[in-house]
Design brief:
CATH superfamily of the largest domain: NAD(P)-binding Rossmann-like Domain
CATH topology of the largest domain: Rossmann fold
Strand order of the largest sheet: 3-2-1-4-5-6-7
Strand content: 5-15%
Radius of gyration: 18 Å
Shape: globular
CATH class of the largest domain: Alpha Beta
Bound molecules: nicotinamide-adenine-dinucleotide
Number of strands: 7
CATH architecture of the largest domain: 3-Layer(aba) Sandwich
Number of helices: 8
Mean pLDDT: 97
Structural class: alpha/beta
Number of domains: 2
Helix content: 40-55%
Oligomer: single chain
Amino acid sequence: MLKGKTAIVTGSTSGIGEGIAKALAGQGANILFNGFGDRAAIDTLVADTAQQFGVKTDYSDADMSKPEQVRAMVANAEKHFGSVDILVNNAGIQFTAKIEEFPAEKWDAILAINLSSAFHATAAAVPGMKQRNWGRIINVASAHGLVASVQKSAYVTAKHGLVGLTKVVALEMGEHEITANAICPGWVLTPLVEKQIKDRATKEGRSEEAVKNELLGEKQSTARFSTPEQIGALAVFLCSDAAINITGTTHSIDGGWTAA
Ligand code: NAD
């Protein structure tokens, strides 16, 4: 379905981004991986994806908190692959604290990585998409793009901002075959959430299993985590021809979190 198209997936060395990158590669898209981690493991991921799905892959170590690196990543991908047709703004970090204790540098980092990087990448990618009259922009927001939780002021602010950005981009791209959508996952068991579980278990002197069940029980009627593969399948659908008129909106995959 996506043969000949190229996708950039930011933060795809782990978790949801990796799931989306593999799902798009499974449909024939070339992939530019991005994110941090052990370099040997990243090289293996990039090479294995190319081999498994018969697509071209590459890797950028661009830091999403640095606007010039974000824009250079897009420009280099256009040169290397010939086009950037799908942009998945997924890279993200988390930090929790009460607002009066929230470190200013954590606020700045979350806003830069979880929100501003999507602005810079989108601005750099849309001229080429307009020229080719085809594009898909997928912003990985969160249930926290729609509702709030305590101790997550920066994260909730960034994710609400990302939903707003998605809407503006959709309106500006309306006359082209370019859509912009936000995926809003609830709990997905990735390193980002495993760290929250571990921190809470340590702080409260409880088992990680107990905290896991409590997290799910607090928010999701299904009491089940979503998987990166399920988020990847939704991203594939949003890239399909069937989704051409779906734009400027949010797609929850949250086990009922935002139904309450
Ligand atoms: P993760 O920690 O497994 O992956 C995060 C990815 O972002 C990694 O590849 C990491 O290297 C990369 N990254 C972090 N800082 C970066 C930077 N400065 N520059 C480039 N890459 C950077 O987390 P995840 O759970 O897969 O999260 C992916 C996205 O999904 C995030 O935007 C997160 O907010 C969102 N999300 C996650 C959940 C969840 O339950 N896991 C729920 C809703 C939304």
